[in-house]
Amino acid sequence: MGRVSGKVVFITGAASGMGRAHALRLAAEGASLAITDRDQTGLAETLAAAQARGAEAAAWPHDVTDEAAWEGVVDAACVRFGRIDVLVNNAGVSSSTVSVLDIGVDEWDRVMAINARGVFLGVRTVGRKMRDQGRGGSIINISSVFGIVGGAMASAYCASKGAVRLLTKAAAADLTAFNIRVNSVHPGLIDTPMLDGLLAREGEVRDRMLGVQLQRRAADPDEVSSAVLFLASDESSFMTGSEMVVDGGWTAR
Question: Which positions fall inside the Ketoreductase domain (predicted)?
C-alpha cells in the first residue's frame, strides 16, 4: 500500500510545474485525485498521467479567486469521490519584477487575489467540508521562501506568500478542534515554468539568485512533492501550524 492509499486529495494549479508533480507523486502513493486549474490543456495532460499511474482521478476548470467557483468544484469533487481528505493549495503566480515604488495597483491586486485570496477561499471552503465530514483532514498551503524573507523587486509576491504563511498558522488554531491539520510548504528556487519565465525576463539574475542558496541549484519539483506527500500522510499527524522549508539552504544564511 502507498503512503496515502485511500485518501482523496484536492489539488489546485495542477496543470504544470509543482502542481503536476504533487499530483503524480500522490497518485503513485495511492491517492485518489481531484485536480483543478485554469489551463484545461495542461490539466488534461496531468489527469491522463495520473490515470496512467493507476489513480482514480477527475479534473475541473477552476479560477481560485472566485468564491462561487470554489463551492462548485468542491461540491463536484465530493459528489465524485464522497469526501476530501487532503487539500493542496498550490495555485499561484509570480509578480512583475519592479520596485514597490513602481508596482501598479492592478498588478498588486492580481497577485494578492490568486496567491492569498485563493488560498483563503480554499482553506475556508474545504475546511468547512472537512469539519462536516467529521473525519479530520490535512490542508497544505504552498507558500515560498519569500513568505519568510523579503526580496527586492518582489513586494507583491512576498506580501502574498507571507499572508499564506500566517493564514496557515491562524487556520491551524481555528481547525484543530476538528482534527484538521494545516501546514505550509516554502520552496526556494524550483525548476518549473514559473521560474523559467522569471529567468527569461531577467537573464543574468539566474546566477545571482542561485548563489543565495547554499546548494546553488534549482530544486526538482519532486523534491518539494516529498514534503507535500509527508504532510498529506498520517506520518505527519503531530504537525500543524508548521512550516516545511525546502529551499536549498536559502534561509540558513
Answer: 7-183
Residue at 1 is within a domain: no
**Catalytic site residue from 112, 157, 162, 172:** 157
Known catalytic residue: 101? no
**What tens digit of pLDDT does each residue of 4-17 get?**
999 999 999 999 99
SS3 150: coil
Q: Which helix (H) or strand (E) holds 208?
A: helix 205-212
Structural domain span for residue 197: 8-243
| Cα atoms found within 13 Å of the Cα of residue 178, Cβ hemisphere only | 22
Indicate if the pLDDT at residue 186 is higher than 80: yes
Q: Compute the Cα dihedral for 210, 115, 231, 243 and give only its sign.
A: positive
Nearest to 146 by CA among 94, 216, 220, 106: 94
Task: Give the Cβ contact number of residue 40 at 10 Å.
Answer: 13
The rounded distance, in Å, linking the Cα atoms of 133 and 129 is 6
Domain count, the chain: 1
Grid coordinates representing 62? 477552476
pTM: 0.94
